[in-house]
Amino acid sequence: MFPEYDVIVVGAGHSGCEAAVAAANMGSRVMLVTMNMNTIAQMSCNPAMGGVAKGQIVREIDALGGYSGIVTDHTMVQFRMLNRSKGPAMWSPRAQSDRMLFARKWRNMLEAHSNIDFWQEMATGIVVKNGVVKGVRTGMGIEIPAKAVVLTNGTFLNGIIHIGEKQFGGGRAGEKASKGITEQLVELGFEAGRMKTGTPPRVDGRTLDWSVMEEQPGDEAPSKFSYTDTPSLQKQLPCHIAYTSQEVHDILRTGFGRSPMFNGRIQGLGPRYCPSIEDKIDRFADKDRHQLFVEPEGWDTCEIYVNGFSSSLPEDVQYKALRRVRGFENMKMFRPGYAIEYDFFPPTQLKTSLETHLVKNLFFAGQINGTTGYEEAGCQGLMAGINAYLAVRDEEPFILKRSEAYIGVLIDDLVNKGTKEPYRMFTSRAEYRILLRQDNADLRLTPLAQKLGIRGAEERMVRVAAKQDAANAIEKFFREYSVEPGQINGYLEAQGSSSLTQKVKLLGILLRPHIDTAGLRQVLPALDEFLRGYETEFIDLAEINMKYEGYIEREQERVDKMNRLESVRLSDTFDYQGLSSLSKEAREKLSQIKPRTVGQASRISGVSPADISVLLVHMGR
């Protein structure tokens, strides 16, 4: 009935969609298996993409040929660049999307790809022969053969939804859980665990009093995620901010006795940095209010997402408490919030390619690895799809270093440290933030996509070259153009900067605090005329490179030192147990994780600098 596919992807969430596209754009014949074709790329929780560090990941996905940024640009209703008041390493793009348009656009792009086929049914197991995956098995007993399989099951593996004292099986509201895969993987020797996440109530925007809430508009000049020629946002929908109160908290506390969070029915750990509202008021009892971000679900719907009010409390308690929030007094609820428990597999069981140690050509990506968030899932899917293609051809895996991408940081953290709670990306997790900015993801990663042969990378490289040439030309102008005191002193004094007494190069002026290119253009006609020929993105890149040159150089020096350890390869068959000079914990961890390099070994929890020295001495280094 079915031919042998190069790659089968199980699950069509954000991770599965990116995995399918990545493998297909490399040239693989792909089968995407999903329980419901109507929920492909569903935004199960917040209808938004990006945010702090997450926005950087979306731009990295795009730079490597993924589709998340393109889909977001076509379907967003608001765009904001977060952390503009901080340094450029912290700038993070975020977009509010139209939930229905987002899923529709993803499905259209997948269906337009000639290398991708679809099968709508539950996958209940994988086919394994002699330690190598050979395909998947469905609920109807059909076997679909493949050379590689990527599991991206999200929250569906034995998922249980909790609302107060009620609980029922499900991977998402209105959808059944997936059975069979966990049990088979455990039989094969995999370790499984349980995690928890949740979602807030959805309410009727027609019943809210917007006039008493704080309006949160989008940027005046909205940017976008993709480096391709996607449409610019011409109009935007506002978000709003509301606040809980002590009265709201008191009502919520009346439901604690019936809460699965507090009576022990939920065993899995929830995300530390995105707690439920009941968790917040319990952990931060000294706070008399919490922010709620009241966000639209799309252009043509009155459905509203109450961000910050995630809850598994009984629906009557959620309803009463929300109606005490200012602006929500007449609120009507579409559906209550709920918590969901699901199976995951500790990611220390994976190689840095996301291939499992136990079964060859079997890859895990997304929430099955213990992460949370569309962006974290999408980038894992992208990497798993690329590496599945490479594995089928017995080629070296594609591994991103921590110094090359936030994607590299995420996967390195998961594989070497594992996670006991849903992992979420933050800028603080990266040692080389000034190198991993959202503005330069294409310069960092598109050349790698071109080298891999990903479809579309050649065309993208034309823009990358133009961007780099523009930045070089702009920097050259600043280094060579001289400014007279009379041209600039009025502007400098207005900015609280000391006046010039003699002619200086324009670069010296730009390096002063509180001075930027936009301000200089207003008082230097020659500069303004020169820059008119360049895109804002190109100008911003040049300005960042000039103002942060010293920081960038120092960070690159640190990268070069770390790369010396990354260049020392370790064999999968290295006998750590036979190296008695290593600590017992190091022998156990190194044997389990099987690091590819000494650099990776140095980041494994429990492996000390002394253990690394022992390894280097043993290897004659």
Write the topology of this structure.
Blueprint: E1 5-10, H1 14-26, E2 30-34, E3 48-50, H2 54-63, H3 68-75, E4 76-82, E5 92-97, H4 99-111, E6 116-120, E7 123-129, E8 132-138, E9 143-151, E10 160-163, E11 166-169, H5 181-187, E12 193-199, E13 202-204, E14 214-216, E15 239-243, H6 246-253, H7 277-283, E16 291-296, E17 303-307, H8 315-322, E18 333-335, E19 338-344, E20 362-364, H9 374-392, H10 406-417, H11 441-452, H12 457-480, E21 482-483, H13 485-494, E22 504-505, H14 506-510, H15 517-523, H16 525-531, H17 536-547, H18 549-566, H19 584-593, H20 598-602, H21 609-618
Parallel strand pairs: 1-2, 1-9, 2-6, 9-20
Antiparallel strand pairs: 3-5, 4-5, 7-8, 8-9, 10-11, 10-19, 12-19, 13-17, 13-18, 14-15, 15-16, 16-17, 21-22
Helix pairs in contact: 1-9, 2-9, 2-11, 3-4, 6-8, 11-12, 12-17, 15-16
Can you put this structure into words, describing what you see?
The chain has 621 residues and is of the alpha+beta class. Helix content is 36%, strand content 18%. It contains 21 helices and 22 strands. The strands form five sheets. Strands 1, 2, 6, 7, 8, 9 and 20 form a seven-stranded mixed beta sheet that branches. Helix 11 runs antiparallel to helix 12. The longest helix is centred in the last third of the chain and has 24 residues. It is globular.
Task: State the helicity in percent bands.
Answer: 25-40%
What percent of residues are in strands?
15-25%
Individual helix count? 21
Cα distance spanning the termini: 55 Å
